[in-house]
Design goal:
Strands 1, 2, 3, 4, 5, 6 and 7 form a seven-stranded mixed β-sheet that branches. The chain has one domain: Flavodoxin domain (Rossmann fold), CATH 3.40.50. The protein is globular and about 45 Å long. The chain contains six helices and seven strands. Helix 2 (30-45) links the parallel strand 1 and strand 2. The protein has 175 residues and is of the alpha/beta class. Helices cover 37% and strands 25% of the residues.
Length: 175
């Protein structure tokens, strides 16, 4: 084998480098805890990935187009006697006039929803996030991760889902 072939093998495959853009809404800290656990896990599994996370209230709809993969995460709220709503910060972001017409143009996406088992619409935030992605022409590449009740002690489920996200992203056609 020539030195050129050896050098080529030593260079990371840039086509495998991914940018993950996480937008999350967290008020009690549970969604942020899950997001942090996921990021910690992904940094070990895929050290070449560029991961950026931001809270929904600091984002604008065009920011959803950043990165190669979009991950939306929100807890489920039960306000005004209506169960199964998005966190208010995520709701505001996704219902902004610019967000209503945003085209995700086939962008690979994933969702995380948190919820409490005591409510009928447990973790319904995940359903709302998936609906937004589908309506706006995003491409869900893995089933949503649903964290029920306290996230503490559920880190292994987050790690397993993170591996699924990585594997699914490898299968995506990156035109």
């Amino acid at each position: 084998m020539s030195n050129t072939a050896n050098a080529a093998e030593a260079v990371p495959h840039f086509s495998q480098r991914r940018g993950l853009h996480i937008v999350f809404a967290s008020t009690s800290g549970h969604t942020e805890y899950v997001e942090d656990a996921l990021v910690d896990s992904l940094q070990i599994i895929t050290p070449g990935w560029e991961i950026k996370a931001a809270i929904a209230e600091k984002m604008q709809p065009p920011d959803l187009l950043g990165g190669d993969v979009l991950l939306l995460a929100s807890s489920t709220w039960n306000t005004g006697s209506v169960e199964g709503q998005l966190n208010p910060h995520m709701w505001v972001l996704l219902h902004d006039d610019k967000a209503k017409t945003l085209d995700l143009a086939g962008k690979p996406c994933a969702c995380i929803g948190l919820g409490d088992h005591r409510y009928f619409y447990t973790a319904r935030a995940a359903d709302h996030l998936q609906h937004y992605i589908k309506v706006h022409h995003g491409r869900l590449i893995v089933p949503a991760l649903k964290i029920i009740d306290e996230p503490y002690g559920q880190e292994e489920a987050v790690r397993v889902w993170g591996r699924q996200l990585v594997e699914a992203s490898k299968q995506v056609d990156w035109c």
